[in-house]
Amino acid sequence: MLVAFSISPGSADEDGSVSEAVAAAIRVVRESGLPNETNAMFTNIEGEWDEVMAVIKRAVDVVAARSNRVSLVLKADIRPGFTGQLAAKVARIDEHLG
């Protein structure tokens, strides 16, 4: 399965930034060993349901340790039997772009 998700604390630091808390969440994802990528809006992660959801829960937990409120946006592509889709889906689109 592929999951695109975004985690943000409910309150920002004194400068209005949430980047420190978001970085802590992304660190959890990167240390998980699962295929992942981060862009300006979301982090994408690929793996089996239980392992992906466990990583997302740990990422939420590290943000919750910094803020008493956490926002989580999650979108999942559940396609049993398929792996390597983090890159393969983009490659299929690129083929059509020529």
Automatic annotation (TrEMBL):
Coiled coil, from the record: none
Location of the Thiamine-binding protein domain: 3-93
Cross-referenced InterPro entries: MTH1187/YkoF-like, Thiamine_BP, UPF0045_domain
PANTHER family: UPF0045 PROTEIN ECM15 (PTHR33777:SF1)
Family in the record: Belongs to the UPF0045 family.
Protein known as: Uncharacterized protein (TIGR00106 family)
UniProt source species: Microlunatus panaciterrae
